[in-house]
Amino acid sequence: MEAFWLSMSMIFVAELGDKSQLLALTLATCYNARIVLWGIFWSTLAVHMVSTAAGNYVGDLLPLDWVLFLAGFSFIVYGFWTLRGDHLDEDGQTCKPAVHPFWLVFSTFFMAELGDKTMLSTLSLAATLPFMPVWIGSTLGMVASDALAIVAGKVLGKQLPEKAIHIVASLIFFIFGAVTMYRGGVSFGPVIWITAGIAVGLSGYLFLRKPRRDP
């Protein structure tokens, strides 16, 4: 049960302010909220089954201390990713009624989640935790987070404190990542820790740097 609740809570946090959560809010303005949630559930179930299986496979190949160390590092990177925030492009803002709303939501979320930080977070969790609790917990965590976005969006419109949500979620990632890295790398030498520190700093720079403006 611990793996289930940990997976559910971490993916719930990972989804806060994520582009797929913003997509859920947008689709809910066009279609019935139940259909949107149902499409999100089945799409997430499929994507997270793949990421959980991949995480379990990776976890069997590496020593536990390295798995924990790398998983903790990945959560810190996801923290920078969350702090930067995601935005929908213009295509994500339009309703496309050419197909049934369920299949639109299912396919849109499936493609949006491939390579997204919630999928990668699930993979990291599955590297150290059992398959079934991570799969079900991560799926329910994402669905709950997207349900919150739909409800909040209908009630509050565009008055949500998006920046504050990003900051709180990223802090949770940083703390969880640092603790996990310490658990895995407590016996590692200074060279590994210095290298990891440089990698963390570089990832923060790459995610948080301001894009150059063309003259």
Global Rg: 18 Å
Strand content: under 5%
Structural class: mainly alpha
Spell the H/E element sequence: HHHHHHHHH
Task: Please give the largest β-sheet.
Answer: none
Question: What is the number of strand segments?
Answer: 0
Number of helices: 9
Total count of domains = 1
What does the average pLDDT come to?
Answer: 78
Question: Terminal Cα separation, in Å?
Answer: 55 Å
Helix content: over 70%
Overall form:
globular
User: Poorly predicted ranges (pLDDT <50, ≥5 residues)?
Assistant: 90-94
In short:
The chain has 215 residues and is mainly α. It has nine helices and no strands. Helix 2 runs antiparallel to helix 5 and helix 3 packs antiparallel against helix 7.
